[in-house]
Structure formats: structure tokens, C-alpha cells
Design goal:
The protein is α+β, with helices and mostly antiparallel strands and 1014 residues long. The chain contains nine helices and 70 strands.
Length: 1014
């Protein structure tokens, strides 16, 4: 809020013409209404309701929505609505051609179906009771009725109202009811006075009182139609008199609607002449020729914010006040060619126009033309000197206007000066003028005039093209040049300052010298400033201006700087401007008045293009019209907008919003429609909304009236919306709606619980399985190690240790007969043999522990070494056979096969007592190894269950199972023992592993994934 800018109330300013208000219209012919609107009202929730000939509409400032009554409620007695009244309790009373209805809470409609009389007027008295004026031709109950919750209590002839119909109804400040019919009744229970019955008797029973209104000052107005025509009548202090105001048509006025607004101004709607507004004894007229939808008026209404609404036979009109008022031919200008404006010291506003010199004084326009003494037609620059004389540029000359006459100023050679574009006066009372002699070449000269004589003429090369002038408060003048130079002329001395705007658009078009010596200039690249000997400053969009170009500017009496720019009228408060002087990079706070506020900025060719009148009003011209803003009377809209959430659209299905509503599951698209009920400037209403449960911060959709969401999760939500009116006043409470989105079966809590329990159960089962696997693996490893240790202990005991023991016995025997050389030699030979045997047995034991993975891939060779190492225990004949081509095998699997085969060979040598051993390998699709002997066989119990303390057979079975092979042991006392192991090729052969990995890589590659295997 700027100091001095605005008042706290919003209403229609009665001092302005109707044509100076903002006017909006909605025409039936444009398809806005299905039929002509008839009446209008605004309920307490902020909605505007419009009755038409075919139903009821609701309006939020943007959208007209046909009202559809809820299911289960009553219906209107008729779709032709002729009366609407918004009651103090927020309900809406509806009068139709066939009866009365009452709408409560926008949801429940009660129809007074027992009364089929047409309703003409509905009012609410000072006690909150509802009264109706109606046709009562059939039931004879009387034309004036009071409505209760379920019935009408009517008053007629027995109550002093000797008529069976009433057209209009009003109540005055003394609580008298005025009833219009073929006469005019003033009525209270028990008291009746009749007026104009004789004067209106020739109307032959036709309604003659067409309109009634009660003023705030106790006056009552009536629109009468009879023979003779009575026109508009006013009842005041007990007497009726014809109400004739200058500009109105007197008795010929066919008033069909009367309305008294909050300023006690009387609005008169007519049947064929448009509307009149009467205020302070003067009238103003607005017709279809001025933009009204029709000259036939149905109703006039004022809403909560002070806007005036008019229903006509062809549409709907609204009028609201504007911060910036315009003056054109309609308001009294001689032509729409205003090029300069100047406020005189006596408050007269002088306007240089294309056809004369216009002046506005005390609200009245007058024009000085050539036949009034104006020495020309086109007025350019204006200036008022220290003595109050008006200097006027006219055509190609300059004239002084004093005491009603013009005297021309000519050059020393007697010729015309040229087109005067700017004027000023220095401290020595010399008049300086910028004159253009050839517009096409932008040539200009500077003239100094003293005592009405040209005493100096400056031009190139002394000074290049001048555009603007300002008087220095101390001495001399300032000149703005086309070259963007700022020139200071002081007693023949010139100081030049250059301004580089950074663009190719040159020129300083206006200068203003402040009392502290600082200079401001208007350019196409912003506002420039100079103070002292400092560098020129620049005020542009970087400092918060909506646009750079400045047409003209002026400082008002409060120090606020007003800029007339293409983007609107800008107001910069004095303290904000001081911030810029101190810190040129500061972003300023300013007030913008745009086209919706009435601003129509444009460039004017002559100076001054802006001025401040003694009463503080600020004036501008734009080459066509004059505009004015009064900083002390800019009405502020003090009513925050009322908000409503209108519809919920879920997956293209519309739901009526109500608290704790539930929306269906698996909903993808959600639209929430909301509105703010402010009718001053709906285009400037801004919103913020937040969906609690989804949005972290407030969303700023600007002026959009819908919120959109996608794929909301099931749960509880709260939608909140707030808004501000045209003056930025926020309704922080706003509107809120609680709703929930139902979950699908797989989104419910019980399903989640089941999933969690199932997951835990699977984890537990996997854990148990893994523990069992680890236990089996550890047991197998333990048994395997135990078996190996047992076998090694047995082999060391049965072979190696026994051999060592035998070696010791041989050595002991040799020591006993150490003196016998022959005995000693035989003992040493025998000891050497025993020690060689021990070496072979120890090597065999060590070889059984070695891992074949470090050796060749040939199992046949490995098994052959095993038989060679075992021959010391037995002299069995060994045969080998290999079928197929040997293949590369997985080392771990190969090692297990080797250990199984080695164990079988060792067992054959140690336990079979046979003399033949056969070892065969068959390489095919699978690998088969067979070790057989012709010994005594294995006891069936031992073959099936093993022998206590021995783990060879058990270890072989476990190894076979670990590598996915099958172990077969066939034994009999007659045929010996055959141990056969069969291992699938997909497990043992390396090529099969590579092929499987390649196949897996191809599969995963087609799936677009990366496969890696060590």
C-alpha cells in the first residue's frame, strides 16, 4: 500500500459518468443465455443468481451454470422466473409466473404449490420477514402476502388493499409498505393510504405503478404510467412531486425499474430509453448506443462489492468503478485527439486537442475553437508561466492566452516559429520553447523568449535535435536530446552528460527537475536519473519495472512518482524511489494499474503529457483521450473473495463435493474445480491450493480454477484452496474438502499384513532350509574328513607303520648279531627292502591326498598311477580300457570322480583277495567309470550299510551324490565286486557348462539385461 493511495471501501463513485465505469456485458444473441435474463440476486455464499425466462443460472464471475435441482426436491412452479430475493439467512426466494419457491442451502427446494398466482416482487422487511406482491385474481386472498415456512398469509380488500393484484413492492425507512397496482398504496396493518387513484383511473385496470424504490433519506420514488403521463414521482416529507432532473425526459420517462444504491444515488431503468443515474441533482444517461445490451431494462441490482448489475431484454450488464478514469468525446472532449494536458493553478484542466483548446472546470467541459479566437486548429504544447498566462502551441505558431484573448509570438523576421513541442520557464522568467521545423528530418531548434520577443535561437552545431525541456531550480535549463545526451544550459555555458541505454532506440522524451536538483528523464529504455556530478542512473526492468519504455511521468503532491508506460500506469512511492537513488541495483516495490484498472497508456507527441492538479489528481494523455487517477480516492476492495469447491472429477466422472466423501479405487486422474466469488475483477483473482497428504507446499496456479492430480495412492486427503481479490487481499481461511480414495483389494491393510506374514514365513522357511543344507554340508564334510582320517590311520597302521615296525625288527635282529658280517649284510639288505616298501607306502598315502585338479585331465592315467602305487600290497593283474574321446572336465567334479575311483581301487587291492582288476572309462553323453575285481566280494550288509569304524563306502556314496552322479556297487562271492559311477555330461564336461552359459547370455541379452558369470 502506497502512502495516500486508496481508501478502504469499494463502491460506485457517483461523481463519475456511467461511461467512465468498467462495463461488461453478456448478450443473449451470443449464446450466453438460452433466453433473456429477467432478475438477479446474490446470496450470502457469494454466488450471483440470474433468473431467466427458461430457468435459473448461477454465476461465479467466470462461468454461468444452469442450476439443476437435486434429486428428491421439489421443482419450480414455472421455469419463467420474474422475481429473486436473497434473504439474510442465506436462502434464495424464487418468484415465477405460476408461484413461489424457496431454495435453502443450495440443496432443498420448497415449492408453495398451493398458490398458483404469479409472483411479481419479493422483499425482506427490516424484521427479516419475507413479503411478496402477486396476482391474486383467482383465489381472492389479496395481492400482498407474508411468507412463512409452509404457507402464505395474504392481505386484501378487508385489510385496506382494494385490488386483486400488485406489480411492485417496497418498504420505506418508517416500515411502511408501498404497494403498486392501478393505484399506489401506503400500508401498515390497520392503516392504508391511497395515492394517484384518480390520476391513474384512465389506465383501464392495467398496471400503472411500474417501479418503486425507497431512498436512505426517507424518500420514496415511483415510476407511474397513466394518462396523463406522470413519469417519475418523489414522495418526501409527506408530499408527492414530479421528479425532474436536468438531462432526464420528465413526464415522458417510461420508468420500469427504480433502484437506490449505497451512495443514495437513484438508478432509473426504462422500457425504451436505457438507464439513468441521478446523483447530487444531476443525471447521467447510458443507452444501447453506448454499449448497453438493450434499452429495455428489467432489473437493477447492487452486489456485496458495490458492482451494479442490469438485466435487459437482450442480456446482462455490469458496471464497476475504475481506479483510472478516462475522458473522451462521450465525457465532453471536443475530439479524440488529446495530445497534451496541463493543470492550471485554479484547478482548470487544459487539454491540447486536434480541434481546439479544451478545458475541464468543476466537472464541465468547454472548448475554445477558431471562431472563439483560437489562432489555429491543432493545439500542441501547453505551459502556464509565473503570472498565470497560458502559453499555447497552435499549428506552426506559439500564442499567449490572457484575459480571454490570444497574442502570437513570432520570430525576429516576423515568421512563424514552427510546431512547438515543449515549453518551460527559467529562473529569470524567460520562456524556452522547442520547435520542430521539418518533422521528416527530426530537425529541432531551441528558442529563448523574453518579454514576448525571441531573443535567442539555438540549433546545430551548438545543440543537436532537442526533445524535452526542464527548468533548473537554481539557474538555467536542462535539455534532453535525441542523441541520449542530457544537456545543461546555464548563461551560455553548456555541460553535457551522455546516457548509453544499450539499445538502438535513442531519445530523452521528457525531463523533470526536482527541488533537490536531481533530474529524471523518460526514455524508451527506462527512466534515467542524474544527481550532482554523478553518472546517469537507469531504472529498468532489472529494478522491478514490468516494461522499460516510459511515455511520460509526473510526481504527485505526496512524492509518489507515476509512470505512464506501455504495460500500464505505475506508482512508485517516495521512499522506494529514494532506495533507487541510494542503491541503483535495488528492486523496487510498485503498484501497477493495467487495462483492467482502466489504464490505456500511449505516447503523446507534445509536452506536458502528464500533470498534477491542485486537488492532487494526476492527469495523462495518450494522443486520443485524457486519463485521470486520484491517489487519495483509489477505492480498495476490502472484501476477500469467498471460496467454493464446486466439483470433483475422477476419471471423467463428476461427483458433487461433500465432506468425508469417498472416491473409487484405482483412480488415475483427479480434477478439483474451485472458484472464488469476487466480481470486481474476476480476471485478477489468484489462487493457491494444497492437497494435504500429497503436496508439501502450496501450489500457485495463478488464475486457473482447477487442480489436477494423477495416480493418487489410497488414503485420506484434505484439499485446501485460498484466493486473493483484485487488490491482493487474501482469504487465508479459504475452502477445504476432506475425501478419501478407497484401496483395491491388493492395496488394503489386511492384504499388506498377509504379504508381510507370507514374506516372513518364506524367509523363515528359506532360513530353515539353508540351515539344514549347511548342516548336511557340514556333516558331509565332517564325515568325509573323518573317513579320510580313518582311512589314513588304517593305511598308516596296516601298511606304513607295520612296515616300519618290521624294519625295526630287522634292525634289532642285526644288532643282536652285529659281529656276524654275513648276518649283518643279509639284515641290512632286508632292512633296505623294508624301508623301500615304507617309502612306496608313504608315497601312496600322500598321493591319495593330492588333488588331481593340479594334474592332467586324463582320468585313465590317474587311475593307472593309483594301481601302480597299490601293487606293493597285492600282485593283481590290472587291465585298463577307455571308450570314446577324452573330454575336458570340470576340475571339482573330476576330483570327486577320481577319489571315488581311487577308493574303489584301494579297496580291491586291500580287501578283495582277487588276482584280477579291471578299470574302464567310457566317454559319451555321460561319463561312466567302472572298477571290478574277481575277489571274494563284499558282505551284503557291509555293502548296504558300511562297516563300523570304516567310512570308505559311505564317503563314495556322498561324493557321488554331491556331484549329481549315481553309484552302483554289485558284489558276490563268486564274481567279485564291481563299483560303477555314472555322472551326467552336463555336470562333468566343461564344454556343456560353456554351452549352457552362452545360452543363458543370449536369453538375458534379448531381455536387455547384463549377464556375468565367473
Amino acid at each position: 500500500m502506497f502512502c495516500g493511495l486508496g481508501t478502504s471501501a469499494w463502491a460506485i463513485d457517483p461523481s463519475r459518468r456511467i461511461s467512465q465505469y468498467a462495463h461488461s456485458s453478456w448478450r443473449t444473441q451470443d449464446g450466453v443465455f438460452a433466453s433473456a435474463p429477467t432478475v438477479i440476486a446474490q446470496t450470502g455464499d457469494g454466488y450471483i443468481w440470474i433468473g431467466t425466462q427458461s430457468g435459473l443460472l448461477r454465476f461465479d464471475g467466470v462461468r454461468f451454470v444452469p442450476w439443476i435441482f437435486p434429486e428428491g426436491s421439489s421443482h419450480l412452479p414455472s421455469q419463467y422466473i420474474v422475481a429473486l430475493m436473497a434473504a439474510s439467512d442465506g436462502s434464495l426466494w424464487i418468484g415465477t409466473t405460476e408461484g413461489l419457491a424457496h431454495l435453502k442451502n443450495n440443496a432443498r427446494l420448497q415449492s408453495y404449490s398451493h398458490s398458483h398466482a404469479g409472483i411479481n416482487e419479493i422483499i425482506e422487511d427490516s424484521d427479516g420477514r419475507v413479503w411478496v406482491a402477486r396476482y391474486a385474481i383467482d383465489d381472492g386472498k389479496g395481492p400482498l402476502c407474508r411468507a412463512s415456512d409452509s404457507d402464505l398469509e395474504c392481505y386484501g380488500k378487508s385489510d385496506g388493499i382494494a385490488t386483486n393484484y400488485a406489480t411492485v413492492l417496497a418498504q420505506d425507512s418508517a416500515k411502511n409498505f408501498w404497494v403498486g397496482t392501478d393505484a399506489l398504496y401506503r400500508w401498515k396493518p390497520g392503516s392504508t393510504t391511497v395515492y394517484f387513484s384518480r390520476e391513474l383511473s384512465r389506465s383501464v385496470g392495467l398496471p400503472s405503478v411500474l417501479a418503486l424504490a425507497a431512498g436512505r433519506d426517507g424518500a420514496v420514488y415511483a415510476g407511474l404510467w397513466g394518462s396523463p403521463k406522470l413519469g417519475l414521482q418523489r414522495f418526501f416529507q409527506g408530499n408527492w412531486r414530479g421528479y425532474v432532473v436536468p438531462g432526464m425526459n420528465g413526464p415522458e420517462l417510461d420508468a420500469s425499474e427504480l433502484f437506490v444504491d449505497r451512495n443514495n444515488s437513484l438508478w432509473v431503468g426504462t422500457r425504451s430509453q436505457g438507464i439513468y443515474r441521478v446523483s447530487n441533482g444531476t443525471s447521467d444517461h447510458f443507452r444501447a448506443e453506448d454499449g448497453l445490451t438493450s434499452n429495455s431494462i428489467e432489473q437493477i441490482y447492487q452486489d456485496h462489492e458495490g458492482n451494479i448489475w442490469v438485466t435487459t431484454s437482450k442480456g446482462l450488464d455490469s458496471f464497476r468503478d475504475l481506479p483510472v478514469a478516462s475522458f473522451s468525446i462521450r465525457e465532453g472532449l471536443s475530439s479524440d485527439g488529446a495530445v497534451s494536458v496541463l493543470s492550471g493553478r485554479n484547478g482548470t484542466i487544459w487539454i491540447g486537442n486536434d480541434g481546439g483548446l479544451d478545458s475541464l472546470h468543476n466537472g464541465e467541459f468547454s472548448t475554445i475553437r477558431t471562431h472563439h479566437g483560437l489562432p489555429g486548429e491543432a493545439v500542441s504544447a501547453l505551459f502556464q508561466d509565473h503570472a498565470g498566462r497560458m502559453w499555447v502551441g497552435i499549428d506552426n505558431s506559439l500564442a499567449v492566452y490572457e484575459n480571454g484573448t490570444f497574442s502570437e509570438i513570432r520570430r525576429s523576421d516576423g515568421g512563424d516559429l514552427g510546431i512547438v513541442t515543449a515549453l518551460t520557464e527559467d529562473t529569470d522568467q524567460n520562456i524556452w520553447a522547442i520547435v520542430i521545423t521539418t518533422v521528416q528530418k527530426h530537425s529541432g531548434r531551441l528558442f529563448c523568449i523574453k518579454n514576448r520577443r525571441v531573443v535567442d535561437e539555438l540549433g546545430p552545431p551548438q545543440i543537436d535535435v532537442p526533445l524535452s525541456l526542464a527548468s533548473d531550480p537554481t539557474d538555467g535549463i536542462w535539455v534532453g536530446l535525441l542523441s541520449n545526451d542530457l544537456l545543461r544550459w546555464r548563461r551560455g555555458q553548456v555541460q553535457r552528460y551522455h546516457f548509453d541505454p544499450g539499445t538502438t532506440q535513442p531519445g530523452i522524451f521528457q525531463l523533470y527537475a526536482q527541488s533537490d536538483g536531481s533530474i529524471l528523464g523518460a526514455t524508451q529504455s527506462g527512466l534515467i536519473g542524474w544527481h550532482g556530478e554523478s553518472q546517469l542512473l537507469s531504472l529498468t526492468t532489472r529494478n522491478g519495472l514490468p516494461c522499460n519504455r516510459v511515455f511520460t511521468f509526473v510526481e504527485d503532491k505526496e512524492g509518489t512518482l507515476w509512470l505512464y508506460a506501455p504495460c500500464g500506469l505505475l506508482a512508485i512511492a517516495k521512499d522506494e524511489l529514494q532506495k533507487w537513488w541510494q542503491r541503483p541495483e535495488t528492486v523496487l516495490k510498485l503498484k501497477l494499474f493495467d487495462v483492467l484498472d482502466g489504464a490505456q497508456p500511449g505516447a503523446a507527441p507534445y509536452r506536458p503529457a502528464s500533470s498534477v492538479s491542485p486537488d492532487g489528481r494526476v492527469w495523462f494523455v495518450n494522443s486520443h483521450i485524457v486519463q485521470m487517477v486520484d491517489p487519495h480516492h483509489i477505492a480498495q476492495n476490502a472484501l476477500p473473495p469467498m471460496l467454493r469447491i464446486e466439483d470433483i472429477v475422477a476419471d471423467r466422472r463428476t461427483y458433487s463435493p461433500h465432506q468425508d466423501m469417498k472416491l473409487p479405487a484405482l483412480m488415475r486422474d483427479l480434477e478439483i474445480d474451485y472458484t472464488a466469488l469476487s466480481f470486481v475483477m474476476p480476471q485478477k483473482v489468484r489462487f493457491r491450493y494444497k492437497l494435504e497428504g500429497h503436496d508439501r507446499d502450496w501450489q500457485d496456479p495463478g488464475t486457473r480454477r482447477q487442480a489436477f492430480y494423477n495416480d493418487l495412492r489410497p488414503g485420506q486427503y484434505r484439499f485446501r484452496v485460498i484466493a486473493c481479490n483484485n487488490d491482493g487481499l487474501w482469504n487465508e481461511t479459504g475452502a477445504a474438502l476432506d475425501f478419501s480414495i478407497s484401496p483395491a483389494w491388493f492395496q488394503t491393510k489386511w492384504f499388506l499384513v498377509i504379504c508381510v506374514l507370507s514374506g516372513l514365513l518364506l524367509i523363515w522357511a528359506f532360513f530353515r532350509l539353508r540351515m539344514q543344507q549347511m548342516q548336511r554340508s557340514l556333516s558331509a564334510r565332517f564325515n568325509e574328513r573323518l573317513a579320510e582320517r580313518t582311512r589314513m590311520a588304517r593305511e598308516l597302521h596296516d601298511t606304513f607303520l607295520q612296515t616300519l615296525q618290521g624294519s625295526k625288527l630287522v634292525a634289532d635282529d642285526a644288532l643282536e648279531k652285529s659281529s656276524d658280517p654275513i648276518h649283518m649284510q643279509r639284515a641290512m639288505e632286508q632292512l633296505s627292502a623294508w624301508l623301500e616298501r615304507a617309502i612306496h607306502e608313504g608315497r601312496a598315502a600322500l598321493n591319495s591326498l593330492r588333488t588331481p585338479t593340479t594334474q592332467t585331465n586324463d582320468l585313465a592315467e590317474a587311475f593307472k598311477r593309483a594301481t601302480d602305487e597299490s601293487r606293493m600290497q597285492s600282485r593283481m593283474q590290472v587291465s585298463f580300457s577307455v571308450t570314446g574321446h577324452p573330454k575336458e572336465m570340470h576340475p571339482v567334479v573330476r576330483d570327486e570322480i577320481y577319489r571315488i575311483g581311487y577308493e574303489a581301487i584301494r579297496n580291491a587291492y586291500t580287501h578283495s583277495n582277487g588276482n584280477q582288476l579291471a578299470v574302464s572309462l567310457r566317454y559319451g553323453k555321460d561319463l561312466e567309470v567302472c572298477v571290478s575285481d574277481n575277489g571274494v566280494g563284499i558282505d551284503p550288509t557291509v555293502a548296504d550299510h558300511g562297516k563300523n569304524g570304516h567310512f570308505g563306502l559311505q564317503g563314495m556314496r556322498e561324493r557321488a551324490a554331491r556331484i549329481g552322479g549315481k553309484l552302483f556297487i554289485v558284489s558276490s562271492p563268486d564274481s567279485g565286486t564291481a563299483v560303477r559311477i555314472l555322472v551326467p555330461g552336463g555336470i562333468v564336461f566343461k564344454k556343456s557348462h560353456v554351452t549352457l552359459l552362452n545360452k543363458m547370455k543370449n536369453v538375458f541379452g534379448r531381455m536387455g539385461r547384463t549377464f556375468h558369470a565367473d
